[in-house]
Amino acid sequence: LWKLMMLLLLLLVIVVVVVLLLLLVVVVVVVVVVLCIQLHLEHSI
């Protein structure tokens, strides 16, 4: 029973870490896109 609980906890931790990493990647991509758009706008003016 304990091993099952430990496995479930491990799975939960892995899922949380993966979700956090995905969120981080999304945030980085959004920031890069926004910066690129701002740069393009500044150059076009």
Brief digest:
It comes from Echinostoma caproni. The chain has 45 residues and is mostly helical. The chain is 96% helix and 0% strand.
Please outline the helices and strands:
Blueprint: H1 2-44
Largest sheet: none
Note the gap between the termini: 66 Å
Helix content: over 70%
Helix-strand string:
H
Poorly predicted spans = none
| Tally of separate domains | 1
Oligomerization state of this entry? Answer: single chain
| Tally of DSSP β-strands | 0
Counted by DSSP, the helix tally is 1
Organism: Echinostoma caproni
Keywords: Membrane, Transmembrane, Transmembrane helix
Transmembrane segments: 6-37
Protein name: ABC transmembrane type-1 domain-containing protein
What does this molecule look like?
- By secondary structure, the chain is mostly helical.
- The protein has one domain.
- Helices cover 96% and strands 0% of the residues.
- The protein has one helix and no strands.
- The chain has one helix at residues 2-44.
- The mean pLDDT is 94.
